[in-house]
Amino acid sequence: MSFSSSDLEAVQCLLCRADDAEPRFTKDGLEVVRCRRCHLLYVNPRLTAKALSR
Question: Strand (E) positions, the chain?
Answer without folding.
Answer: 8-9, 21-27, 30-35, 41-43, 46-47
